[in-house]
Amino acid sequence: MQTYKKFLLAAAATLVMSANAMAAEKLRMGIEAAYPPFNNKDASGQVVGFDKDIGDALCAKMKVECSVVTSDWDGIIPALNAKKFDFLVSSLSITDERKQAVEFTDPYYSNKLQFIAPKNVDFKTDKAWLKGKVIGTQRATLAGTYLEDNYPDVERKLYDTQENAYLDLVSGRIDGILADKYVQYEWLKSKDGMNYEFKGEPVLDSDKIGIAVRKGDTKLRDELNKALAEIKADGTYKKINDKYFPFSIE
Fold first, then answer.
1. Are 204 and 111 in contact (CB under 8 A)?
2. pLDDT tens profile 88-147
3. How far apart, in whole angstroms, are the C-alpha atoms of residue 34 and residue 73?
4. Domain spanning 27-109+208-244: CATH superfamily
5. How far from chain centre, in Å, is Cα 57?
6. Which of 144, 116, 119 lies closest to 201, judged by CA?
7. pTM to 2 decimals?
8. Backbone torsions φ then ψ of 15, nearest 5 degrees
9. How far, in Å, CA of 71 to CA of 53, rounded?
10. Does domain 111-206 have CATH number 3.40.190.10?
11. pLDDT tens digit string along 182-218?
């Protein structure tokens, strides 16, 4: 009887360990889902985009099951730190300020900041010409910070989503937008964006984008870095890149 009890206890312990192991094999990725072509929702409400595809590829390499948790951009880092998801793959620029709140992987793509404005406007990007102009940008982004730090005489108009900035540009409420080049590249190809264009050269061409994890979660960060190196080496990354862009954004 004593032996049988020991057997039951051992079996129960094995089940608990197996359940814990299964739980450990599931991760949640945080995504804004309002920043095409990097992240968005399709007609059926499913999250799609470059960020989602990269996240899925990394999870496949790590042999873990991953689900998506969406979050408004303004609260996306607090949501990560509140453990609403395990890692954040949502076109987040690596900055010194953000490094105080989260840990970043190696960059998974590079971006640039550039102005867009109507094609029929002789839009200049120097401080003197932009003085008094109304420029839109998304709140809590590198573009917003750059505009504040480098164009103090510009009237900034901040938006909760990039899409709302486009709506005001089309309606004539703002003179231009400063945002990530590759996001705007996608919009300029659309029906709404066809009468707009990039103005001048990129004002910042060294914007490195990383995946964020909570402070101290170095194990997950290292696993993501390893998986990222693997998808770059085996051609998976290039396939995802080429699905969205006719040029490399690495």
1. no
2. 999 999 999 999 999 999 999 999 999 999 999 999 999 999 999 999 999 999 999 999
3. 9
4. Periplasmic binding protein-like II (3.40.190.10)
5. 15
6. 116
7. 0.86
8. -65, -40
9. 17
10. yes
11. 999 999 999 999 999 999 999 999 899 999 999 999 9
